[in-house]
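Q: Two folds, back to back.
A: First:
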Amino acid sequence: MKHFLLFIALLSSVYSGEFRYSISPITLNIKHQMIKGNSYRQGCPVSLDKLRYIQLSYIGFDQKDHTGELIVHKDVAQDIVDIFAKLYDARYPIHQMRLVSHFQGNDWRSIEADNTSAFNCRNATHSHKFSKHAYGKAIDINPIENPYISRTGNISHKASYRYKNRTLKSPNTPQNRAIITKDSLVYKLFIAHHWSWGGDWHYTKDYQHFQK
């Protein structure tokens, strides 16, 4: 009986954890990490005092609880927490969630790692203008399962080829459940908070991308 109760306690900690989060200003340590990691530099269109560092719970592809980190604009920080709290309750799977500075600010490397991320002081894809990411008002979610597709149909990341078909439903794997469509909870939550989705763009499709 004792072993059975211990098993139930462990099971509860894995499958019914409590969503936790914190929102804080950019500390000196985080600032140094951003600069060293090439995600922030002089000339960025938003000052550090307008950004917030968020730590929050998420369900990984291993179906276990993890703590992720994001940097976003202070005006959208509560949106992000509210949305990801509901995604956590629904057990929506996220591969990983690390600051893009861990990838030296390199969007390609972050995507190859299937990393969910937000702030990055960079230009928009194929543009000389700042991306919404450079303002902290955009997020990319599970980018391998939700690829950027050019107007010619090209996908730059080989692992994303199988997700070009957005109706892929089975088998019931975390990867397939990570796919974002208009029927998905991810889409509905962001739209309810008045964000727009790259999957609605007319020419290119950026299924990982939400912005406000």
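A: Second:
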Amino acid sequence: MQAITRVMESQHFILGPEVESFERELAELLQVRFAVTCASGSDALWLALLALGIGLGDEVITTPFSFVATAGSVARAGARPVFVDIEPETFSIDARLIQSAITPKTRAIIPVHLFGLAADLDPILKLAQERKLAVIEDAAQAIGALYRSRYVGGVGTLGCFSFFPSKNLGGAGDGGLVTTNDENLAGRLRLLRAHGGRNKYNADILGTNSRLDALQAAILRVKLRHLKAWNAARQKKADDYFALFRADGLEGKIVLPQTPPNRAHVYNQFTIRCPHRDRLRDFLAARGIPSEIYYPFPLHLQPAFAYLGYRVGQFPQSERAAREVLSLPNYPELPEEQQRAVVEAIRDFYSQNF
């Protein structure tokens, strides 16, 4: 409230000192040279593409198992999304399949750090370097996650973050950020988010209006001081889930989240794979236990992307994940007795029905 009052008294509501301070503080935390805020995580992806000059006639490789904004931003930039299936263990794009999707029109790869876990970036970066492609990290769900001791968002060409309220670092509304270590790209991003100009009435390039409000920056600056502790608390809650599920003998019935070596998961979602997923969800709801499905329909089968010409069965791992995934309650303040109630309910569902 003190931060909000400070902004209200300043009467500086868009960009300005609060936003600049937040950008510096977050760049320092993520160990990147530049952090450029914008209006949303979706805009962050779109602006990253525009900063690279990607548009009509270009192709961008990404995953069909993500929120619509990932591929939607590619289409919004005028380029064509090209999908590659996921790894079943991590739900991230399968780097082994990317090579065969590259064409002379390919300009970039967008791996998604889904649910708070980093995608396998090394083989993607190696391939991108060989083929002279950009790597745009979709880190909307993974702020603070690590890949080989480096924060996601600072490993590829550009990193994109969301401050949607449900994120590990969430605002009181929409907000986004693009990170980069490239000074030229950072300068172009700042132009693009503010109508393409360095001052009010001169446009150097065609841009848009995608600026972060100072109120959001002020709120996020306060919350940023707690991010590492909140991520650690989410990791502790995940460890508690693992122990409870193993104690109840449920590992053979469901698949728990997996974290490969050299990565640190920040559990924006605690997502399991489970048979009879929809029936389980209804069972949990009847006991007053909320859950969510991220994502019930892979992007290649959604009407908005029908023009791409993909068909059922083309990305089997993504389609299977859409049938099986279920995200359970997980947040820093989640009481242990409620976690126990979640696990007991899942145990009861499978013991009573199967």
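Q: And?
A: The domain at 2-224 is CATH 3.40.640.10 (Aspartate Aminotransferase; domain 2).
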